[in-house]
Amino acid sequence: MSLFSALDRRRRTGWAFAAPGLSALAITMGFPLVYALLISVSSMTLLKPHLSPFTGFSNFMQIMSEDLFWHSLFLTVRYSVATVIGEFVVGLAIALMLQRTLKMKPVYFAILTLPMAMSPVAVALIWRMLLQPNLGIVNQMLTGMGLPAVDWLGNSSIALSTMVGIDIWQQTSFVVLLLSAGLASLPKDPYEAAEVDGATAFQQFWYITLPLLRPISAIAIIIQLINEFRTYDLIYVLTKGGPGVSTELLSFFAYKRAFQGLSLNEGNAAAFILLLIVLAITVVFFFMLERKD
Known about the structure:
0% strand, mainly alpha
């Protein structure tokens, strides 16, 4: 009995210490989330700022019946997958090169963290000036080499790819830091055994490095997927969803519907669909990782 009472006392003590943090989390995250959910099932608009009457799931059905919603969802998936794959591949290559570097490694890491330390708005403003069709330095270099100038953000066929490249430029450094930490923590024994067995460098990378990096790689991919699915800053500064709707991701679709279309209820419904997609991806990814382990 004394053992159980001691365990209960420890449990109560733990909850007492966790209570302030959990309360702050509930206030700062729980209340806005619940209120946003109430708006998404209500008839609230900017012209009629009242929750009642509640409409159930009609707002969700309304936006899901529109072709523009599915277009934005497809662009979001395409954009997120392209950026995460690019960030992981480039980040892994840089991390492997840095692992073999012995001199000036802190300097390289400091340089790599500069894009990550910049705000997305600042990055977007810088790249908008660099990619300006007439005066931007990128087109000046192209015309100097005898190549035609490119309207990087004004051409609907390449605007999304341009944004993907800018996002990869900024976010790759985060992946590099995570993967570099993972590479530094790998055990040396498997590599020594592989060298004794005559394994090539590629075989060591494919059969030892990648499997051992799977947990940290999964964390990096999940974090970046969440970041990319909720991308908003780059769109707002660079293209405003244009030209046309060629770069209108789901986050920007929700913003336009809520504040430009004055329909807070439908905008919140779109945002909640985005939230559910991100949660589903996270749960599935962690389930796959634990199952393989």
